UniProtKB/TrEMBL annotation:
GO cellular component, one term: anaphase-promoting complex
Upper classification of the organism: Eukaryota, Metazoa, Ecdysozoa, Arthropoda, Hexapoda
Name the record gives this protein: Cell division cycle protein 27 homolog
The family this protein is said to belong to: Belongs to the APC3/CDC27 family.
Keyword Protein biosynthesis: no
Source organism: Sitophilus oryzae
Length: 129
């Protein structure tokens, strides 16, 4: 990660407005736990590409790590507004990593309907043969 950071620093020195390099450098800062630096980078990036949902999503993750839940939710909401399909699963996983894993049996999930809510031969009112 340190080599990657050095590479992004060189790239940004030669092209200070490169959105991709700035985003990746912010991601490296985040991965290293350098949240304040990541946030500074992302706020600058937000000025360059104001409609990029992944920037708002990463800002939300940084704020979550910093304990700023309100700001995290605000940025996750903006990310969702910008990319309703792409951001929603990432945001759910940011708040509950278990959502991204298939560790819960669907029949035991609190979000699943109870078995008696499904129509079947035994509870549909139709005779079973």
């Amino acid at each position: 990660t340190e080599k990657a950071l050095a590479t992004f620093n060189k790239a940004i020195a030669s092209n200070p407005k490169s959105p991709l390099c700035k985003f990746h450098r912010a991601s490296v800062y985040f991965a290293l736990g350098r949240h304040v630096e990541a946030l500074k980078e992302l706020e600058e990036l937000k000025e360059i590409i104001p409609k990029e949902s992944s920037v708002y999503y990463l800002i939300g993750k940084v704020h979550k790590k910093l304990g700023n839940t309100d700001l995290a939710l605000q940025h996750f909401s903006w990310a969702t507004d910008l990319d309703p399909k792409g951001a929603s699963n990432q945001i759910k996983e940011a708040f509950d990593p278990a959502i991204g894993r298939n560790t819960v049996d669907p029949e035991e999930s609190p979000l699943s309907p109870a078995l008696d809510e499904y129509p079947s031969e035994s509870n549909s009112g139709k005779p079973s043969y």
